C-alpha cells in the first residue's frame, strides 16, 4: 500500500510516517522544504501547488495540515478543498487529521464541544475554522474521505499506550472519565484506519482506552 502524508514535517505528520513505515507501508512525505520525517520518499512541493499527477501513484493521502496563525486559519478549508479536488472521482482515500472542537456533546447533535462554557477561548478560532472545513467536507460525495478527530486533550508528548477506543460523532470518555489521547496513539489509530478502511465518508474519533 502506498500512502502520501501531506505536511509530513508536522508533529502528527512525523508520527503517522513513523507508524506507517513500522507497519510496512510505502510512505512518501509531501513537504515544502527539507524532509524531516522518516519517509524514504519525498515530494518537495507546497500543498497548494500540488497537481493531480503528483498523487497518481498513491492509494491513500493523509492530510496532516494544521496552522495556528490567525491570518491562515481559513486555509483549513482551502487546503482541504484543494486535496478533495485533486482526488475527486478517484478510488483513492483521503484521511484527514481533524480537530476535537466539532465533536458533539449531546445525543441530539445540537451542541459541539467548542460551544460549551469550559472550552478555552484561545482555541475557539482554530476549532471554528476546522469545524467549517469538516462541514464542507461532508458535502463532498466525489471523494472517499475519512475525518479523524482526536480526544479533547490531545497530547503532543504523551506516551503511546497502544490501546484506544474508537468513537464517532460524539465526544467519548474512557473508563476514567477522560477524553485524552497522545499524538502517538492517534497516529496508530489513523494507520489502522488506512489499513482496515472501515469508515468511508464518515467522521470518527479516538480516545485512550
Sum this structure up briefly.
Residues 8-192 form the NAD(P)-binding domain. This protein has four helices and ten strands, in the order βαβββαβαββββαβ.
Write the layout of secondary structure elements.
Elements: E1 2-6, H1 11-22, E2 26-31, E3 41-44, E4 60-63, H2 75-87, E5 93-97, H3 124-138, E6 144-149, E7 153-155, E8 164-167, E9 180-182, H4 183-196, E10 202-208
Helix pairs in contact: 1-4, 2-3
Describe, in plain words, how this protein is organized in 3D.
With about 210 residues, the protein is of the alpha/beta class. It has a single domain, classed as NAD(P)-binding Rossmann-like Domain (Rossmann fold, 3-Layer(aba) Sandwich). Helix content is about 25%, strand content about 20%. It contains four helices and ten strands. The strands form two sheets. An eight-stranded mixed beta sheet has the order 3-2-1-4-5-6-10-8, with helices on both faces. Helix 1 packs across helix 4 and helix 2 (about 75-85) runs parallel beside helix 3. The longest helix is centred in the middle third of the chain and has 15 residues, at about 125-140. The chain is globular, with a radius of gyration of 16 Å. It starts with a strand and ends with a strand.
Amino acid at each position: 500500500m502506498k500512502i502520501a502524508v501531506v505536511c509530513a514535517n508536522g508533529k502528527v505528520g512525523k508520527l503517522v510516517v513513523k507508524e506507517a513505515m513500522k507497519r510496512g507501508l510505502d510512505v512518501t512525505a509531501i513537504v515544502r522544504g527539507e524532509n524531516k520525517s522518516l519517509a524514504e520518499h519525498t515530494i518537495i512541493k507546497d500543498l497548494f501547488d500540488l497537481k493531480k499527477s503528483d498523487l497518481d501513484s498513491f492509494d491513500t493521502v493523509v492530510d496532516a495540515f494544521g496552522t495556528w496563525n490567525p491570518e491562515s486559519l481559513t486555509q483549513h478549508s482551502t487546503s482541504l478543498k484543494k486535496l478533495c479536488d485533486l482526488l475527486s472521482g478517484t478510488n483513492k482515500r483521503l484521511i484527514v487529521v481533524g480537530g476535537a472542537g466539532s465533536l458533539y456533546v449531546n445525543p441530539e447533535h445540537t451542541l459541539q464541544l467548542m460551544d460549551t462554557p469550559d472550552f478555552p477561548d484561545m482555541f475557539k478560532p482554530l476549532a471554528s475554522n476546522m469545524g467549517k472545513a469538516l462541514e464542507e467536507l461532508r458535502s463532498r460525495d466525489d471523494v472517499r474521505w475519512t475525518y479523524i478527530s482526536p480526544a479533547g486533550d490531545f497530547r503532543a508528548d504523551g506516551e503511546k499506550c497502544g490501546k484506544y477506543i474508537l468513537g464517532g460523532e460524539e465526544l467519548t470518555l474512557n473508563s476514567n472519565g477522560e477524553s485524552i489521547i497522545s499524538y502517538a496513539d492517534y497516529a496508530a489509530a489513523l494507520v489502522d484506519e488506512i489499513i482496515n478502511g472501515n469508515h468511508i465518508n464518515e467522521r470518527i474519533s479516538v480516545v485512550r482506552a
